[in-house]
Write a structure and sequence with these properties.
The protein is built from ten helices and 13 strands. By secondary structure, the chain is α/β, with parallel strands linked by helices. Helix 1 packs across helix 5. The N terminus is likely disordered. The structure holds NADP nicotinamide-adenine-dinucleotide phosphate.
Length: 292
């Protein structure tokens, strides 16, 4: 297995598998830098740079899509059976290519519940939720694939168009309070920029196969919601105690409150020297407000 990311040059061609929130942001930035980036979606799009890939319906990309591909970023979560859609449908194809680098967006859910303590890449993952067990299995399968993969563990992703401001505007906000509960988060621009930073500085940086991308300030949801209401000059609704709210929450929403951890970014930001654009939710949310 190649165990180093490659530095970038004009001949690089990226496939971004899963052009959702993070994938589309990444592809846009890659193109701005002058590289080619094709993106997948489950259904046909008008965009000439888009192609169809849907593992559930066995809709696979035409083979020309893979011509000259050097870099792949997978932003696709495990399927309902816990399989990785890309590896399930395309592993042999990917292994037949001369890939220099493969990135895989994973989640910090694999760390499980640390009772509010910091978690870092050297901690043994202790998934708590069923979906996090599936995710960890997908990470392991990517590593076993022998592809030159780098795994990025992400906490809650926010950015323009997907932030607490939209939740307030769409009246989807629930102000819930749970003592000592914190969440980590990351602005979508920092996911893209951190990955590009690692690729561009490959020759001078040690290669790490698993890297957290999180901001500097894990904190309670209420702090973030209060900040947005203050920013908008509105009054925040009275918080509801988690114990009183939990029966009304969807199973997925409830599950997020069952884990409490602070995600360390020391490997990325201290050891590897990446400088966050949005170090905390306050500056990140200002950017969201200005760009939504
Ligand atoms: N959202 C968060 O807060 C968060 C936090 C931590 C980690 N993550 C993980 O990070 C990754 C990127 O997150 P995101 O929020 O940017 O993702 P997203 O917006 O939900 O996009 C997911 C993409 O995967 C594609 N996809 C899903 N199932 C597929 C399948 N079976 N076959 C082919 N394509 C499939 C979707 O296709 P369509 O475009 O056609 O829908 C979409 O482009 C995901 O793995 C996500 O689980 C997310």
């Amino acid at each position: 297995m190649k165990n180093s990311a490659s530095s970038l040059n004009g001949k690089n061609k990226f496939l971004v598998l899963g052009c959702g929130f993070s994938g589309s942001f990444f592809a846009k930035k890659i193109r701005q830098l002058g590289y080619t980036a094709l993106t997948s979606s489950r259904s046909e799009k008008k965009d000439p740079n888009s192609f169809v890939f849907n593992s559930e319906e066995d809709l696979l990309p035409n083979k020309e899509i893979f011509d000259g591909v050097t870099h792949i970023l997978s932003c696709i979560p495990p399927d309902k059976n816990g399989n990785d859609p890309v590896l399930k449908s395309l592993k042999d194809k990917l292994k037949s290519l001369s890939l220099e680098w493969v990135g895989y967006l994973s989640t910090t859910g694999v760390y499980g519940h640390s009772k509010g303590d910091w978690v870092s890449e050297i901690d043994e993952p202790k998934p708590f939720q069923q979906r996090s067990h599936k995710r960890l299995n997908c990470e392991k399968e990517w590593i076993r694939s022998g592809l030159p993969v780098q795994i990025f563990r992400l906490p809650g992703i926010y950015g323009p168009g997907r932030s607490t401001f939209e939740a307030i505007k769409n009246k989807k906000i629930r102000v819930i309070s749970k003592k000592n509960q914190v969440f980590s988060r990351i602005h979508v621009a920092d996911i893209t920029n951190a990955i590009i930073y690692l690729l561009q500085n490959k020759n001078s940086l040690k290669f790490y196969q698993i890297i957290n991308i999180a901001d500097d300030l894990p904190c309670s949801q209420i702090e973030v919601i209060q900040y947005c209401y203050d920013f908008l000059g509105l009054t925040m609704p009275k918080p509801i105690l988690f114990e009183d709210a939990k029966e009304e929450l969807s199973p997925i929403a409830k599950s997020f409150w069952m884990e409490n951890r602070r995600v360390s970014n020391k490997l990325l930001c201290e050891t590897l020297g990446y400088k966050l654009i949005y170090k905390n939710y306050k500056i990140g949310l200002k950017n969201c407000y200005l760009n939504s």
